[in-house]
Amino acid sequence: MNLKIKYLYALSISFLLTAQSGFSQSTKGALPQIKVSKNQHYFVTENEKPFFWLGDTGWLTFSKLDRAGVDKYFKDRKEKGFNVVQIMVLHNLNAINVYGDAALINEDAAQPLTTPGNNFDNPAEYDYWDHVDYTLDVAQKNGIYVAIVPVWGTNVSKGNKVSKEQAEKYAKFLADRYKNRTNVIWLNGGDTHGNEFTDIWNAIGSTLKTNNPNQLVTFHPFGRTDSSENYHNATWLDFNMFQSGHRRYDQDSVKTNFKEDNYKFVQRDLTLKPTKPTLDGEPSYEGIPHGLHDTLQPKWTANDVRRYGYWSVFAGAAGYTYGHNAVMQMFRKGDKPAYGNKELWTSAINAPGAGQMIYIKKLILDFPYLERIPDQTLIANQGEKYDYLIATRGNNYALIYTYTGRKIEVNMGKIAGNKVTASWYNPRNGQKTKIGIIDNKGTKEFQPSGKKEDGNDWVLILRSN
User: Fold this and answer.
1) Whole-Å CA distances, 399 to 84, 148, 284, 369, 392
2) Greatest CA span in the chain, whole angstroms?
3) How many Cα atoms within 13 Å fall on the side-chain side of residue 230?
4) Residues 92-118 as b or e (16 or more Cβ within 10 Å = b)
């Protein structure tokens, strides 16, 4: 059935039937529901087990990957330790997937184009939303939660193509269709300024949260901004998300933002009331030019994505989202590249940074999770910019990160015990090297191996004896 006939077919049935046709969804093997921890800093499962958000950015998965591609992508991300993937449903209102199925009737967000049935072998049944369902099923089988952007911000901010009424109807459709999905998280917004079109974003957020109170909702903002700046007190916002962005220190024209110091977003968010978890939902992507648009600029590397990860998590973030230039756009042969990308997504999934993200997750979960707090009083020689040292600790452990391999001077006595065991942790491969047992008092100096340079990063581990 071609697209035109599908349009006519969909228009011939009532909107009620259209909406109801999407209720067939897999609940077998459902993942534990994710919720905010009791201390309101982190995430846990419904059984109170720690959940460290390790996200990947796969924005165009729904529209550009076929079923085989979906299978390959989520299998790979599971193997690399990711447990969240961020995807947008509607990049544009004329969104069409790889099978030629449109998401909407007449590019109207209030009219999702659905057909009864979901038989892949029958094109008359299988539609855009069935492919979204399939993707969510595959993610679930691989233990992955999907953080879904309902409609990308430009569809609202440029030409105001989505009205408040359309937004509410569309959000209700999504809420009804995916109400039984335990592996769905909602990212309202989508790379957009939170102070613009607040009526629409509040309508979407409120509709999603009111109809499905157990599904987490946040807001994905524009670069160098944070959901907390406009929606922290919104009843629909369960946790904060900021986009630390893709620019260097010297590429910022705004003097008042935090530039590359993404840990400052976390530090600020954790002072707000009520307390809510926060995380960096879009740092600099691996393989993307500094500043995005000038393809002659250097590209961000695995070193940089590690720095953003450890900086933000040690500052108290509830997790971290990684991204790669080729993967976020699911770049295929014949595609028009964005941001100077030339690599296929099937190759880029094996980029160095993607394989190294698991080590931050493993490190954090190796210690009592919910008691962890940021504590800069551990550091006697804090530094700035890339020399910045950052520390986090629990009652019986402390972790201190250096991006440049510079000497770390530690104010001891911040964790329990008269003696502590000190070790080095390598963020590039997860290997530990024991330093020895030392007195837990005074100020001690620790020097990582290798020369002082960007990317010679290490974590100093101190454990109470």
Assistant:
1) 25, 33, 24, 13, 5
2) 78
3) 22
4) bbebebbeebbbbbebbbbbbbbbbeb
Please answer whether residues 361 and 313 qualify as being in contact, where contact means their C-beta atoms are separated by less than 8 angstroms. Answer: no
Under 8 Å between Cβ of 113 and 104: yes
Residue 43 host element (H or E) = strand 43-45
Residue 119: how many other CB atoms lie within 10 Å? 10
Burial class of 77 by CB neighbour count within 10 A (0 to 12, 13 to 18, 19+): buried
User: What are the backbone dihedrals phi and psi of residue 303, each rounded to the nearest 5 degrees, phi first?
Assistant: -55, -45
From edge to edge, which strands make up the β-sheet containing 397-402? 373-374, 389-393, 397-402, 458-464, 419-425, 432-439
- Alpha carbon of 260 to those of 69, 247, 252: distances in Å? 34, 7, 9
- At residue 381, what is the residue type? N
221: cis peptide before it, omega within 30°? no
Per residue in 52-76, pLDDT (tens digit) is 999 999 999 999 999 999 999 999 9
CA distance 63 to 128: 8
Q: What angle do CA 244, 184, 308 make, to 5 degrees?
A: 20
Helix axes 198-211, 164-177, angle to 10 degrees: 20
Burial of 223 (0-12, 13-18, 19+ CB in 10 A): middle
Question: Looking at residues 286-302, what average pLDDT do you find?
Answer: 97
| In contact, 440 and 417? CB cutoff 8 Å | yes
- Residue 118 to residue 114: CA distance in whole angstroms: 10
Residue in 89, 61, 39, 139 with CA at minimum distance from that of residue 332: 61
Among positive and negative, which fits the CA dihedral 36, 41, 44, 46?
negative
Residue-wise pLDDT for 119-146, tens only, equals 999 999 999 999 999 999 999 999 999 9
Is residue 207 within 8 Å of residue 188, measured between CB atoms? Answer: no
Bridging pattern class, strands 145-151 and 50-51: unpaired
Average pLDDT in the chain: 94
Tell how far CA 94 is from the center of its chain.
25
Contact 142/77 with Cβ under 8 angstroms? yes
Beta bridge partners of 112: 104
Name which of 237, 243, 240 is nearest 193 in CA terms.
243
